[in-house]
Amino acid sequence: MDINKLNNIGGSNVNRTNESTQGEASEKNSNASVDTPVDKVSLRDYPFRNNDQLFAKLELEKLNQSSSQQFKKMKGQVSAYLEASDNPDADVQQTELGQKLNDPSVWGNIANKIIK
């Protein structure tokens, strides 16, 4: 039994398949999929793209993180200096903060900032 020879089944017409129209339809579908990029990254979907407040909040979080890292580093320097100053055997000049306190260029920079 050939499906192309069937005219009607149960009162409804059956569309006959035409090999050339199937090829054209699949070619149209493949062209449509080529035109639309599937794996392209788009920033349109991100909420902060057009929202300055969210962008500013993100930048503030970055600055806060870097500032907290700098603060931790300075806190470590101060605690090392205080430990060295409490211990009579330790040399305060060997700590990083102790070296900065006795550096003439550091005091010159401070003086220049006070003058300006």
UniProtKB/TrEMBL annotation:
It comes from the Bacteria. Residues 1-34 have a biased composition (Polar residues). Residues 1-41 are annotated as: Disordered. This is Uncharacterized protein. It comes from Fodinibius salsisoli.
